[in-house]
Amino acid sequence: MSKDEKNLAQVIDKIAKMDEPRRSVVQRVHDVIMNTAPTLKPRIWYGMPAYAISASTPALLTLRNDERLNLAITEKAPFRAGGGVDGKLMPTAWYFENVDEDTERRIADIVRSVLN
After folding, report:
1. What total of structural domains would you count in the chain?
2. Are 34 and 45 in contact (CB under 8 A)?
3. What is the pTM of this model?
4. Which CATH number belongs to the domain containing residue 80 in this structure?
């Protein structure tokens, strides 16, 4: 089994150990990430499912299962100021409780943003 396969298995196992309904929600977000950017490599990073360019590079995205579910862009991803009313603030984390089609589209946009 390759390192990428082992890392993916660890992420799938981590998600599988989550309680419902969060497990299904996080699995859905994982699927959106992988469908949007199949070249990203899932792995566990600081105890969280995470996604990187390769097994040896820092994670660009993380999925947290704490008091609230959280999708975050790490400091290793390219940042761009939000502009507009946010000025120089850089959006880096999004909390969610469930995922619908609109949320899936937004997550896909976020994933694409870390690859540019």
Report:
1. 1
2. no
3. 0.89
4. 3.90.1150
